[in-house]
User: Fold this.
Amino acid sequence: MNLISRDLINKLRQKKIDTFFGVQGGACARLIEDVVKSGGKFYPVLNEQAAGYAAHGYYLATKKVAGIILTTGPGFTNAISGIAACYYDNIPLVVLVGQVSKSLNKAKKFKTKMVGFQEIQHLKLGESISDKVFCIDSGNNYKKFVKEHLNSITKQVSIIEVLDDVQRMKVNNIIQKKDKNIKSKKIIFSKKDFLELNSKEQLLFILGAGFSRNVKIKSNLNLLNKFKIPSVLTWGAQEIAREVKISHGIFGEHTPGIGNQQIETSEIIICLGGSLLQHQVGKSHKNFAPTAKILFVNNDLNECRRAKKQFGKRLTFFNCEINNFLNSFLKIYKIKKLNQNTIDYEKPLLKKIDKTPVSILAKIFNKINQNSSIIFSDSGATLSWSYQASNILGKKSSPLFTSFNLHAMGYANCAGFGAATETKKNIFVVIGDGSIPMNSQELAWASRFRIKFIVIDNEGYGIIRQTQRQFYKSSFVGSDFKNKKSSLPSFSIKKIFESFDIPAIQLNLLKIDNNKINFFLKQKQTTALIIKIDYSAEVKTK
Assistant:
């Protein structure tokens, strides 16, 4: 007997979506059971928020789409941040959420808050953090979903609500059409599109997540490398840093380095698949490469319009596929005649390793095998210091990933475990002491894999205290353990790890013990290195 629940899971598995994260519940129990019975993998996280973060890390490490399965009500609301992290970072995700049976799914009809147990309007909540929402509340709607939506499911964030009783319905003559290769419209640019560009001006390419995850990434990289075009990368494109021949590293407000220097001196900037949002360009668009002409290439028309409004006349947008733009641009424009900056990106940004959070992270990253390791970083000061350390090493750094647009606390340990479920690479997680409690329950999963945790202990929320110093007269309300009126509740990072049978090594930044670092890196089990840093340490942006 083939029921809709089993048929749906089978069709997702045909699309190579066979790994799911989630929390068990009455309205989703059948979906989870069918995943396991059909040969798929289900990882029961301990908080639904972690499911989305785990799926995010899983995709970054494997380039495969994962799903999350949630029960109705709090199962979905708990997961919202994890879903949003995938949506804002353009990480494809399939969200399956149960809903109460049709006879009880009446709140909207009666205009009341709730009728069935834990009945809430999942899709209404999810519309702003997904590309597509779909309600399967009948056999006919399931057929419609298969016909109209299934083929695009691996390219976006989809939230699919399935009523409890509909999950148990029999499938009657549902025919799935074969996938059709949809070719993007080929746009031919003419010389007039590039007449305003002067071959004597300094050119720079910005490569964003839309470039690094493009289906034609190999072809696009070959074009860039063939013509030796200098490039800088956004946080979202960091994974391809070692594949770009002339890469000047990561740029951004909190990532000082050669990349930012390149942008300041460039006169023509071509942004391929990037967004140029605040954490990249700063609060003032006028101050970002103020004299440069910007060519903004993105296949999302709304992103093009937004960028045009923010940058004004000096930005020209091309709403097309990156590959089409590059092919036309390189044929028309005599790229070899363009000026090219000769900054050597292989040269370290800092001449010596001193006792700062950035320097100690760079020292540890330098000891990590770049070809067999992946680093996940959490939010706040930890995130900025991690990327600054990566910039110091340049192409010698392992790929570093984060929830780069949402900047969610408690992301990295979940993403690290999600990645570890399939990749054979060594997983490192850089996380702050303030972020550990957010999803500490998932350390139970991390302990099953060989994950190395590097914990930056600055006694609370360092990046918040930095803001409080700048704008709130150093009133550290709710950001440390010392404030008499509203301090954080005290907890021991070491004991948290040890409660999950994860050994923890403590290191003081003021007295660096290389033996402890080497011992930590050699461990064959999940281990934490807790680095005590200066309470007043701040992120330097210059």
Q: What stands out?
A: Residues 196-337 form a domain with the Rossmann fold fold (CATH 3.40.50.1220). The chain has three domains: 4-167, 196-337, 357-532.
